[in-house]
From TrEMBL:
Domain Type II secretion system protein GspF: start-end pairs: 72-195, 275-397
Gene3D superfamilies cross-referenced by the UniProt entry: Type II secretion system (T2SS), domain F
A Gene Ontology term for the protein's cellular component: plasma membrane
One Pfam family in the UniProt entry: T2SSF
InterPro entries: GspF/PilC, T2SS_GspF_dom, T2SS_GspF_sf
UniProt keyword Transmembrane, yes or no: yes
Annotated localization: Cell inner membrane
Superkingdom in the source lineage: Bacteria
Keywords: Cell inner membrane, Cell membrane, Membrane, Transmembrane, Transmembrane helix
Keyword Zinc-finger: no
Main localization of the protein described in the UniProt heading: membrane
Protein name: General secretion pathway protein F, putative
Amino acid sequence: MASFSYTARNENGVKMEGVIDAESTEAARAILFSRGYVPLEVKAGAGGGFSLGLGALADALSPIPPKELILFTKQFRTLFQAGIPITQLLQVLQNQTEHKRLKAIAAEMSQAIMGGATLYDAFRAHPKVFSELYCSMMRAGEASGALGEVMDRLVYLLEHEHKIRSDIKSALRYPKMVMGALAVAFFVLLNLVIPKFVLIFSQARITLPWPTKIAIGMHYVFSTYWYVVLAVVVAGTVAYKYWVRTEDGRYWRDRLVLRLPGVGPVIQKSVMARFASIFAILQSSGVSVLDALDVLNNTIGNAAIAREFTRIQDQLREGRGIAEPLRTARFFTPLVVNMVAIGEESGSLDAMLNDVARHYDEEVEYAVAGMAEAIGPVLIVALAAVVGFFALAIFMPMWDLTQMAGKR
């Protein structure tokens, strides 16, 4: 997936610029046409923005912190619900927002809307900041005349997902610290401790035990051929990153992750919770099922599951309901399939999906906490094993030397 800068005209004939992610120039043009834009120029490389170009330049920088985006969205919602016109609202946000990137983006959006662009056009011009889900909900709210209610749901979703990510980071903080300590211990023992004993052991006429031979061998490889090790690591990392940028690479990586023992089921439940939550919000916001699946395809966060949405959409276009294609789709849990079927039959699909999302959110929270508690002791044992291995590598030959000295 590459970035393409484009110049196009929207449905109102307003000339606009922006950045879009696509597989090729032809694919980028197709996406623009599907959004109602008439592309004038599409070229590889990030760039664009509206007339000022400030937001596009800012989009190329590091991502905006989730808290800043949530605060921006809350302020937008509050001002809109107070009845302030959009252009004036964005000018107020430009003055109130402390984040420099959001200031530039608010200014650019205000100019775009004054030039005739829709609110969706203004948000969609910054794909690195406002996700496909974010923009689709804004478009649904704008089209239905219920933007205030839609923004309430959007704020809830942003806060909910931020809380889940924060909980996961918090649960994994201790295991990360232990892994860091493990890496430091390995480096210090291998590069600072072992070298001091290599000369002693090489001069001694004793048979070195296997832990010592392994430790000395590792020290020799890392100290003599460090550039080879570094080259292999760098080449492997670059190759992996290039591979996962391809559609097939992302698919096989995410499919493998879903099949990992212990971790796979937790990730699957997390994706199911995200699917149910986003689908419910899009449905209650007036987005059609086909359009909702388009949004989910780009926001679900797992390429293996996202690929199933294309097949489901094909069956929906044949006149089938969503429950039937879900039954034959891979990776969707029976709970999701059954609850969607019940919701589709009863006309309460969004309510059923919300129940599924809450259920899996709780399961994921407990599972992550349990995994963190289980990983901690395992890593402590691994740390002890590394230290113990190097201790044996040092003290076993030292013990032999002491015995030889005693016999003399």
